[in-house]
Request: fold
Amino acid sequence: MSDAPQVGASDQSSEQLADLLALLREVDGVELKLTIPDAHRRATVAALDLDPLGAQIRQVWFLDTPDLALDRAGLVARVRRVQGKGPDSVVKLRPVVPEHLPKLLRASPNVVVEVDAMPGGHVCSATMKGRPTDAEVLEGVRGRRPARKLFDKEQRAFFETHAPEGVGFADLAYLGPITVLKLKTVPPVLDRRLVAELWFYPDGSRILELSTKCLPSEAFQVAAEGRAYLGGLGIDLGGEQQTKTRTALQFFSRELLGTGS
Reply:
């Protein structure tokens, strides 16, 4: 549902919808996302009957320069520890045009090209995932292992192709950690897995995001069903959308640069 749900005609312009339709023919999947205003967070949790004791704990670090050079270039580097599952690392490029991506990249089993759709917008990204060990991640974020060692050879090549000139892994700072609670549920009426993620930022602010994934061919139907279901529960569908990544980057960038709030 949406950083990018609802793929709804009322939420996007004709030009946006035409672009989205073209993308859906080329991507591997769609993630529909919706962020909930913090004032409505408790009511949303109650309406969905979410049990926080069933949540999975995650720790997330982004890597960027203090002035967010990667972000300006559309590149995201991230490492994450996941309770009960193990860590991962990600290099993501967005926006991308799927047909312009190299065939070798599209053929990689470690790459997913996906559309994130949200009220009022969407973005297509190419994500390459790696699997460092938990010990490696802890050594990295504690300054005992070079950041580049948390990413495999394929990820490093992807990064170097798209990073701004003169910016390498040695120039990056860890922006984090951010604690995240992730909870999965399958509402009987919806008959589809719905994911709730609550991100806790160091200044006390929070972002609650609801999301679901589907095949590109299902996007409009799933978005319509999701909107009807959530709206029927009285959940606010019209709140200002916030992106988890951008909020984190901006917070830690201000902290590193000493510019305050």
Observations:
- The chain has one domain: 14-257.
